[in-house]
Write a structure and sequence with these properties.
The protein has helices at about 15-30, 60-75, 95-105, 120-125, 130-135, 150-159; strands at about 5-10, 35-40, 85-95, 110-115, 140-145. The protein is of the alpha/beta class. It has a single domain, classed as HUPs (Rossmann fold, 3-Layer(aba) Sandwich), CATH 3.40.50. A 5-stranded parallel beta sheet has the order 3-2-1-4-5, with helices on both faces. The longest helix is centred in the middle third of the chain and has 18 residues, at about 60-75. It is globular, with a radius of gyration of 17 Å.
């Protein structure tokens, strides 16, 4: 039997991730599990072929971005979503996939609950899928949640 004591719910504060976090809260409440909320701040990626031309941002940019993310993640949960036994919030810098997998390894996470945008075709090939890479690289089971209502709306609009 799988013992799920710690659930990780990464969030980018989007509508998609809110749905996944809501599911993680409900699951954590049912299982009596602890919930970790994680937001990953992306590091600056060089905009051109020469990394030396990447703009150097002032230190305040990083401290302000992290402070804003910490404040947002503390306010992100809606009590109506469920009440896990304990909630801890984390903000990390790095690539989303690497930071999420590293957190799961370091904290001995039993389950990751993550949003999937449901991209297909060209958009999927161009943008890739963070959720798909996490499924492949995570040290634990991963539950992906897709907003089927939003998917139906965007499909209908495309026709």
């Amino acid at each position: 039997m799988i013992d799920i004591r710690l659930i990780l719910a990464p969030t980018d504060f989007s509508v998609h991730s809110a749905l996944a976090v809501q599911g993680a809260c409900q699951l954590a409440e049912r299982l009596g599990s602890e919930l970790h909320l994680l937001h990953v701040l992306s590091e600056i990626i060089p905009a051109g072929p020469d990394p030396l031309l990447t703009p150097i941002l002032p230190t305040e940019y990083y401290t302000d971005a992290e402070a804003q993310a910490r404040e947002a993640i503390e306010r992100f949960l809606d009590p109506a979503w469920g009440r896990p036994t304990r909630v801890s919030t984390f903000v990390r810098w790095g690539s989303p996939v690497e930071a999420i997998v590293a957190h799961a390894v370091e904290q001995h996470v039993d389950l990751i609950v993550i949003a999937s945008h449901g991209r297909t075709g060209f958009k999927h090939a161009l943008l890739g899928s963070v959720a798909e890479r996490i499924v492949r690289e995570a040290p634990c089971p991963v539950l992906t949640i897709r907003d089927r209502d939003r998917q139906r709306v965007s499909t209908a609009q495309a026709q």
